[in-house]
Write a structure and sequence with these properties.
Blueprint: E1 2-4, E2 12-16, H1 23-30, H2 36-44, E3 48-50, E4 53-54, E5 67-71, E6 89-92, E7 96-101, H3 118-126, E8 150-156, H4 159-171, E9 179-187, E10 194-203, E11 211-213, E12 220-232, E13 236-243, H5 250-257, H6 273-277, H7 281-288, E14 295-303, E15 310-314, H8 319-332
Amino acid sequence: MTALPPGGSADALTATVEQPDRLDRVLAAVFPGHSRARFQKLIAEGAVTVDGAEVSDAALKLRAGQMVQVKIPPPVAAAPAAEDIAVDVTFEDKHVIVINKPVGLVVHPAPGHDGGTLVNALLAHCGSTLSGIGGVKRPGIVHRLDKDTSGLLVVAKSDAAHHSLSEQFAAHGRDGRLQREYLAFVWGVPERPAGTIVTGIGRHPTNRQKQAVSKRPDAREAITHYEVLERYGTAASLVRCRLETGRTHQIRVHMAHIGHPLLGDGVYGGSHKTARARLSPDAQEALNALIGQALHAAVLGFEHPVSGKPLRFEAPLPAALSHLQQELRLQSGVRNGT
């Protein structure tokens, strides 16, 4: 395999295959400055193309003459820096801190979000007291919320707290210690007023940014319990979701799977032009003002990791979702509840 000049791009490596072999092996051989494990990670992240087409299989057998390109992300600081970002603290002691996360705030540094995250804010707020078990990039983090999902999130400030909270989240409430409830505004009204969705969830087969219901062997079991709280005619409804597992984008994927995706969800929501047309002009305006999906982590309960005391917190809908709810209620005559 022969390496070629990067074509004027300092963050791209380009090479032509000379000897057929596995993709990750030939990359590690021709570019010894990067480990094979590093290339496997870059392949999984969609940073490698073969003859211009993105590939995701590190074991892909290459043929002589094929062109391979690797996009190397820019270097980032070894550890996130403390940043003066305001956080809405719901509860705090020397072991845990519960945050009411706003829409738009990323939880921890990741490619494309090296700063301005909740971790950066907590490093400024808590100093060196965060648990280090989560690693340099994720100190204290035991669970996450999507960037555009608002609501309650607990962070460990001690290693003992991190161990206990990790166990509780791993059990997903099956042992009675953890409680997580979300409020979701969805298109249409589920046929059953309450139910349980049980599927496998795995990475989408063609879009690496998405998750999907899957029956593949590597799919992970996902269980969501839902209950319809309010109906806004036939156009939309407010649903309470309780998680029994914690898969990436679980509620968004599951509600879309049963035909009721979340309002404002540009990834899983589809267009829903017909349903949108049934909203009043004011409700449409409130929907257009949303940033991301209409999903809020409203309730978080857990056992205090040191005292053992059960703790339960509630966070009201943020202003944008509260305004959307008000307009949906006005157009459908709903006062409170179904």
